[in-house]
Specification:
Blueprint (H helix, E strand, L loop, with lengths): L1 H20 L5 H5 L4 E8 L6 E6 L10 E5 L5 E11 L2 E9 L6 E4 L45
Antiparallel strand pairs: 1-2, 1-6, 2-5, 3-4, 3-6, 4-5
């Protein structure tokens, strides 16, 4: 009978301990952006420390962003976006790792959203005229210098 009481007490306490162990994800964990496939390695010039990336869609990666690559057999590398682009191709400096043509290029950068335009209700008194910094120059142009042999 005594063993039954101990087992019953343990049965009541164990589920409450299990609930405490399963914590909800913190706000920091939820804010981490997931890597997004942005392109593939198109070429790696021999003897150079940069690569060309063929972008999948619009290239909206800010200059200086860290990119990662993933290839078969666990191959990976870190790249630094240079900001140079031509058509569907963008350049990146190789920072570390091993990469080959065809490896996927991933970004965790969240591109900035376009600025929101404030809505107006159509009341013209709400709108303000644009601010001009310098007033227009209304003075007459300066006279040309007088040359000594020419009549005035």
């Amino acid at each position: 009978m005594r063993n039954f009481r101990i087992l019953a007490l343990l049965a009541l306490l164990l589920p409450s301990c299990a609930e405490k162990a399963q914590e909800q994800p913190t706000a920091k964990e939820e804010e981490k952006p997931k890597p997004r496939l942005v392109g593939r390695i198109a070429s790696i010039p021999a003897g150079r420390k940069f690569t060309l990336i063929q972008a999948y869609g619009k290239w909206d990666i800010p200059t200086g962003s860290i990119l990662t690559t993933q290839g078969p057999e666990g191959r990976a590398a870190n790249l630094l976006a240079t900001g140079e682009k031509l058509g569907q191709y963008a350049a990146a400096d190789i920072q570390s790792g091993i990469l080959e043509v065809g490896d996927g290029v991933y970004s965790t950068v969240i591109p900035p959203e376009p600025a929101a335009v404030p809505e107006t209700d159509g009341d013209p008194s709400d709108s303000q005229p644009p601010i001009t910094r310098d007033p227009p120059d209304t003075s007459p142009p300066p006279a040309p210098p007088h040359s000594p042999g020419l009549p005035q």
